[in-house]
């Protein structure tokens, strides 16, 4: 699941002097007095057969469900299903004589009493007739969401879709609503024509009668109940294939094939990629993706992913807002999350960390190794911000009060960073494209194969490492998964020219506490001389203070400490300007150059001119856009005439990420006429929506009547939703009645639900500012 599509473009270097000192101790996650475990089961559900008619006008479901279950204990007579806000009409045991069973609702539980005690050897078919009106709970606690047009939104489509995570499916059918049981499922759903229903597995039958259409889907692969889904709408369907399997995209009417394929067209390539590196072919009958109205992010329903309709985009948006990460993330869940599923929510990283990591792997496959490393770096930064600003917690944590709390940056982004580190530790630092022959991927293949269609916890990963490599990596999991934080390395080094030895001293400066340990990690070092010599070493850092004497034939001009940024860390190295310049201009490692850009942006006044010159060259010439972005940000931090000129020049770069970063950095110069003129030009004419939106935000900061008029005119031209978001944010900076009126208008009569919601949000921000 990915609730929000996150593409963090800002680079906040987690390095020297980056201001990560914590003014106050991070707050505590969840509730220390709460310890969550999975509920114990008394039966196993083999199959759910859900027959239901959807009444769109009333927002009501009429269900007739048969649950096939087996007792797990001798003498089962009374048991419960999760069920909420549903009217239970009858419960029957499906025997030859159809025995009526007594039941009682104790919302959210439906208690059923059988006619006698049943043994573990028996199989029961319990039939439940019910109806209910499950709407009214806002996303993401939706259960079922009914989407209908109304007076304020006549263009809104007619749709109904489910949202099962974490335990929402019992709002539309009684079930064991926890992931620790796996069942096959059949959904036989009737909707008014011309709606069609997308659900899990294979479509085995479609019937039409009296203006109604019924779709019968069967998913044979056992799965946790939150992965059962329906999505009904007046879909237009476009199809591709992966091997012999259908890969279908269901989009709202009016969306052309080019638009659908822009978002989804790489899906078969992604399926081949994951099947190869994980060594398990795509496991289900088909793969469908639906673009649902008012949905947030995406959800990995088994073989039938639901995605926000807003991920569809035009050709201009592709450079800044591609669907790539969202689509690959949800697809990867079909292996990690759906085929194997955490037994309980404290292990949610086994789904979300893996999907986030897998998305980065596909990004690397598609765009190259630097793009992979850059994405992992962004994951590290996102996780570090949560650690610094909200709380520190272990990845596996039972102290959540509601499952939603566990879906945080520690689970997703730190989870991804930890998997990258695990691969680094297991593969002893091998760089390059992933291969199924690597120890890390062989281990994952074993883990997937052993637990296929079952449940897992983190110990199963440790066991898979033992089984496939013989290695004991329990210590790694203790540090990175069962405890919190990350190492804060402070590194000093000196060259002993008499002995030809580099003395490298490493301190771990993190404050040790109940959940923050000293970290034991192998660290790669690369030494560079001024005349092009290069030498590598590996040290094992595990103490609070350690000095390593490393034979080195030359005095290094600079040293890369963890050159590919495998380790989630804070790093402080006191380097002179000439070392930073050499590193930024000449280092082979993209991450090391990026690190140098950040450090140059924090240089002293005495070094300002030389740093600006180097950063200007890096901004113009570095081969990787992420380094150019970091250079633009650093120039924005340094300021001055030369930095301003370099940033203005960058507005002509072909890469939209770089232009957008330059626009953001130019925000500090917006009061200067040449800059505001250039930003106005960007807002009107740049090919990139992200650059246009960033320019609108900058111009909002300008606060002049001319800027307000420009924003107003741009809004009247009904730009894309992304540009509109920037314009509306820009308006919120004005303390002005006219700006307020425009925001009010857009919040009620903007062209889409998203634009109305965005305008309402910025209106609220504007009002909050006025009340301060
Ligand atoms: Zn996810």
Explain how this protein is built.
By secondary structure, the chain is α+β, with helices and mostly antiparallel strands. It has 21 helices and 29 strands. Strands 5-4-8-2-1-11-14-13 form an eight-stranded mixed β-sheet, with no helix packed on it. It has a five-stranded mixed β-sheet with strand order 16-17-18-20-19, covered by helices on one side. A hairpin with a 2-residue loop joins strand 6 (102-106) and strand 7. Helix 4 crosses helix 6, helix 7 crosses helix 8 and helix 13 runs parallel beside helix 15 (656-666). The radius of gyration is 28 Å and the shape is globular. The structure holds zinc ion. Zinc ion is lined by residues 1-2, 329, 333, 352, 355.
**Largest sheet composition:** 8 strands, mixed
Give the helix level as a range of percent.
Answer: 25-40%
Rg, Å, rounded? 28 Å
State the distance separating the first and last CA atoms: 37 Å
Biggest β-sheet: strands ordered side by side in the sheet: 5-4-8-2-1-11-14-13
- The averaged pLDDT comes out at 94
Strand residues, percent: 25-35%
Instruction: List the total number of helices.
Output: 21
Structural class: alpha+beta
Poorly predicted residue ranges: 4-23
Bound ions, cofactors and other small molecules, one mention each = zinc ion
């Amino acid at each position: 699941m990915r609730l929000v599509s996150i593409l963090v473009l800002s680079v906040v270097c987690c390095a020297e002097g980056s201001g990560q000192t914590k003014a106050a101790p991070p707050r505590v996650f969840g509730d220390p007095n709460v310890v969550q475990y999975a509920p114990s089961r008394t039966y196993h559900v083999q199959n759910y057969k859900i027959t239901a008619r959807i009444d769109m006008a009333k927002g009501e479901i009429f269900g007739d469900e048969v649950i096939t279950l087996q007792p797990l204990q001798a003498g089962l007579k009374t048991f419960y299903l999760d069920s909420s806000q549903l009217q239970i009409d009858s419960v029957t045991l499906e025997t030859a004589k159809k025995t009526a069973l007594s039941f009682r609702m104790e919302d959210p539980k439906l208690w059923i009493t059988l006619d006698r005690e049943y043994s573990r050897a028996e199989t029961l078919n319990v039939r439940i007739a019910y109806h209910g009106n499950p709407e009214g709970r806002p996303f993401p606690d939706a259960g079922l969401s009914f989407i209908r047009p109304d007076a304020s939104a006549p263009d809104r489509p007619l749709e109904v879709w489910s949202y099962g995570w974490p335990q929402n499916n019992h709002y539309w059918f009684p079930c064991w609503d926890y992931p620790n049981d796996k069942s096959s499922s059949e959904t036989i759903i009737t909707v008014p024509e011309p709606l069609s229903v997308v659900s899990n597995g294979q479509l085995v039958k479609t019937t039409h009668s009296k203006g109604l259409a019924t779709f019968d889907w069967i998913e044979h692969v056992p799965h946790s109940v939150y992965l059962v889904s329906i999505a009904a709408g007046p879909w237009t369907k476009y199809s591709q294939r992966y091997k012999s399997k259908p890969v279908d995209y269901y989009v709202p009417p009016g969306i052309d094939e080019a638009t659908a394929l822009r978002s989804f067209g790489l899906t078969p390539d992604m399926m081949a990629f994951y099947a190869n590196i994980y060594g398990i072919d795509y496991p289900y009958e088909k793969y469908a993706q639906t673009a649902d109205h008012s949905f947030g992010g995406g959800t990995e329903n088994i073989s039938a992913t639901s995605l926000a309709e807003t991920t569809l985009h035009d050709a201009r948006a592709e450079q800044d807002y591609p669907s790539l990460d969202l689509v690959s993330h949800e697809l990867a869940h079909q292996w990690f999350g759906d085929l194997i599923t955490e037994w309980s929510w404290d292990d949610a990283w086994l789904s979300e960390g893996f999907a986030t990591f897998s998305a980065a792997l596909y990004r690397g496959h598609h765009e190259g190794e630097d793009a992979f490393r850059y994405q992992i770096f962004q994951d590290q930064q996102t996780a570090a911000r949560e650690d610094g600003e909200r709380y520190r917690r272990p990845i596996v944590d039972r102290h959540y009060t509601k499952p939603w709390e566990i879906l945080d940056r520690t689970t997703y982004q730190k989870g991804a960073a930890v998997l990258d580190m695990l691969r680094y530790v297991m593969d002893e630092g091998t760089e390059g494209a992933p291969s199924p022959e690597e120890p890390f991927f062989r281990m994952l293949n074993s883990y997937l194969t052993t637990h296929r269609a079952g449940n897992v916890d983190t110990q199963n990963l440790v066991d898979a490492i033992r089984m496939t490599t013989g290695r004991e990596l329990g210590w790694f999991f203790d540090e990175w998964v069962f405890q919190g934080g990350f190492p804060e390395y402070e590194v000093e080094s000196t060259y002993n020219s008499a002995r030809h030895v580099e003395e490298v001293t490493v301190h771990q400066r993190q404050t040790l506490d109940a959940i923050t340990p000293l970290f034991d990690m192998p660290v790669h070092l690369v030494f560079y001389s001024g005349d092009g010599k290069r030498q590598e070493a590996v040290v094992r850092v595990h103490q609070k203070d350690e000095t390593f004497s490393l034979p080195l034939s030359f005095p290094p001009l600079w040293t890369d400490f963890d050159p590919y940024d495998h380790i989630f860390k804070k790093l402080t190295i006191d380097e002179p300007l000439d070392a930073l310049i050499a590193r930024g201009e000449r280092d082979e490692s993209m991450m090391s150059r990026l690190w140098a850009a950040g450090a140059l942006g924090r240089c002293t006044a005495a070094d300002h001119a030389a740093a600006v010159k180097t950063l200007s060259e890096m901004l113009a010439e570095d081969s990787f856009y992420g380094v150019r972005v970091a250079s633009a940000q650093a120039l924005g931090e340094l300021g001055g005439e030369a930095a301003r000129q370099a940033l203005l020049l960058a507005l002509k770069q072909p890469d939209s990420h770089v232009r957008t970063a330059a626009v953001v950095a130019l925000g500090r110069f917006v009061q200067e006429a040449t800059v505001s003129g250039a930003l106005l030009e960007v807002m009107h004419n740049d090919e990139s929506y992200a650059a246009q939106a960033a320019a609108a935000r900058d111009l909002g900061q300008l606060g002049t009547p001319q800027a307000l008029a420009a924003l107003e005119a741009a809004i009247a031209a009904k730009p894309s939703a992304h540009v509109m978001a920037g314009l509306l944010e820009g308006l919120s900076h004005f303390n002005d009645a006219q700006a307020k009126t425009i925001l009010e208008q857009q919040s009620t009569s903007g062209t889409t639900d998203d634009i109305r919601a965005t305008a309402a949000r910025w209106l609220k921000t504007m009002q909050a500012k006025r009340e301060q």
